[in-house]
Task: structure prediction
Amino acid sequence: MYLNYKKNLFQCYLKHKYFYGGNKNMLPAVDYLIVPDKGDPYLEGHKCNVCEAIFLGERTVCSKCFARDKMSKVKLSNNGTLYSYSIVYRSFPGIDVPYISALVDLEDGGTVKGNLINVEPDPDNVDFGMKVKVVYGDALGRKDKDGNSYMSYFFEPA
Ligand SMILES: [Zn+2]
Result:
């Protein structure tokens, strides 16, 4: 009886942590990464209603066709192809190197820069045009002064 009680309490805790409060205290590392209270995080673009160009970050004027006040928010795809990459060997103190900095064209539009993970940083393992997917996770375990974690996005081979 007591064991059952403990077990239920634990399951309640897990349910609360992962289903109801999973993203709580996770702040997005960039403003175009949306972390809803419930549901999966996603990347957000702004799409021009005139020429359909997609940009990251909010803007009022389209950089492609110069239309004003014609931008609307759009949820970006989690699938894309590797457009270009660079293997980084020197970075800021505390950043593990080498890592792959990648430029990815997303399936329904939008080009996003981020790190390609779960691949050995060696040109033999990385191909231009390879299929990748966007994955979300803790931004290298860093926390702000209030103890909040940051959520970031990464690419990995699809
Ligand atoms: Zn436009």
